[in-house]
Amino acid sequence: MNQISIIGAGIGGLTLGNVLKQHHLDFTIYESAAKIKPVGAGIMMAVNAMQIFETLGLKEKIENRGNKIHGIFITDEKLKTISTTNILALEQKFNSCNVAIHRAELQSILAENLGFENIQLNHSLQQIQKEKNYLLEFENGFKTESEIIFGADGIHSKVRNQIFGNGKIRNAGQKCWRGLTDFNLPEKYNHHALEIWGKGKRFGFVKISDKKVYWYALINENKFKENLNLIETFGDFDSLVLEILEATKQENIILNDIIDLTPIPKWCTENLCLIGDAAHATTPNMGQGACQSIEDAYVIGKLLEKNQDLNSVFEEFQNIRRKKVDTIVKNSWTIGTISQWEKGNQLRNFLMRTIPENLNQKMVEKILKLEI
Ligand SMILES: Cc1cc2nc3c(=O)[nH]c(=O)nc-3n(C[C@H](O)[C@H](O)[C@H](O)COP(=O)(O)OP(=O)(O)OC[C@H]3O[C@@H](n4cnc5c(N)ncnc54)[C@H](O)[C@@H]3O)c2cc1C
Q: Where in the numbering of this chain does the FAD-binding domain appear (predicted)?
């Protein structure tokens, strides 16, 4: 019998484990995978997440194993700037940097710090039922009971499906490739992230370590076909894009649909709480999905500092987090739609350029500021 079980050792579940450890609480994390081996891709940890990692004593480790990013640029196909987010001023304000890092590096830092003895790999939750406690049954035949459950099992969450019986997945109608390659970017891009907007397609890249570059490419689903040639598809983009694509081995490329979760009314019920993508998965257009799961864990920790009653912590957690998360899900969906326009792109780019930089900074600041 466990006091606390976390289902899922993704970024959300692992961060929550680190937070509970700080509070000297006993917990077990159950993870379906046989290894902590996330998809081979990079990820951006924005200033909000990095402030939280500082409270866990992990900021420097993550900075050292990733790459600090001081500016985010949206450009047209020929790398002419459409919009700039200069993070330097915000980095100073919040005393943290944006860091681009390999997902595997980040998850291994989180797992090592909380201790592998607290993680049960190869435990895929099959069934969860509420009696006096929660009864958990795993695909490997293992059964146990737990008083408290955290569902950190991602967008297709079994905890959410079986306990709340809701969660409609929305498909954005976009295909997304992610790749990793050894590549020497021009020096001016060493600490910049670029997202290049074309007609019904986008390409983003960022350096994640001395040699490695992480990139992503999106096209509208109506242009998708099996074995589509990315180099041809992005043939009208700057030659740097084509060079990055040419340098990437096929086995280092993954393909996904872009999806999110229609907001669900409640994230918690008696002795159970959903966090991260299980509760509020967003499209990746603002680079905030994982950062928001990290904020979830942080807010739960902050509330535990003054209140040991988990059920009231869960209610308060949802009240605090709801507005920010819903706004991100909504805005991210809108950005995803605008960025993939197939017509009127010149006008779009013109209008984007007229948005004053300080307005953009203000919107970003709202996201980077922790709520508690
Ligand atoms: C293309 C793309 C780019 C992105 N880029 C960024 C970015 O730059 N920055 C950012 O902040 N976010 C980004 N995100 C979003 C981010 O990946 C997710 O929001 C984040 O991974 C959510 O973390 P999580 O722990 O909630 O869920 P997940 O990462 O989905 O983790 C869930 C874990 O639960 C496990 N699990 C699932 N079912 C079971 C079960 N039945 N039993 C046991 N274990 C189970 C899974 O194996 C997994 O390990 C991106 C997403 C995409 C698709």
A: 3-163, 266-305
DSSP string, 346-361: HHHHHHHHHS-HHHHH
Output phi, psi for 137, to 5 deg.
Answer: -125, 130
DSSP calls for 180-249: EEE----GGGTTEEEEEE-SSEEEEEEE-SSSEEEEEEEEEGGG--TT--HHHHTTTS-HHHHHHHHTS-
Closest CA to 237 of 121, 124, 84, 79: 79
Q: Which residue in this structure is represented by tokens 């891009």?
A: 189
CA distance 91 to 68: 11
305 three-state secondary structure = helix
Confidence band for 284, pLDDT divided at 50, 70 and 90:
very high
Residue 166 burial (CB count, 10 A): 12
Q: Return the ligand 1 atom nearest residue 178 CA.
A: 1
Q: Which domains does the chain have, with CATH numbers?
A: 2-170+260-368 (3.50.50.60)
Strands 2-7 and 143-151: parallel
Tens-digit pLDDT profile for residues 141-191: 999 999 999 999 999 999 999 999 999 999 999 999 999 999 999 999 999
Nearest CA to ligand 1 atom 53: 284
Which residue type does 229 have? N
For residue 10, the CA-to-ligand 1 centroid distance in Å is 6
State the Cα angle at 279 between 276 and 280, rounded to 5°.
80
Query: Residue 11 corresponds to which tokens in the numbers above?
Result: 């970024």
Mean of the per-residue pLDDT values of the chain: 97
List alpha helices for 151-273, DSSP H.
Answer: 158-159, 230-233, 239-246
pLDDT grade for 39, boundaries at 50, 70 and 90: confident
Ligand 1 centroid – CA 72 distance (Å)? 23
Q: Is 80 exposed, middle or buried (0-12, 13-18, 19+ CB in 10 A)?
A: exposed
Decide if pLDDT at 62 tops 90. Answer: yes
| Nearest atom within ligand 1 for CA of residue 153 | 34
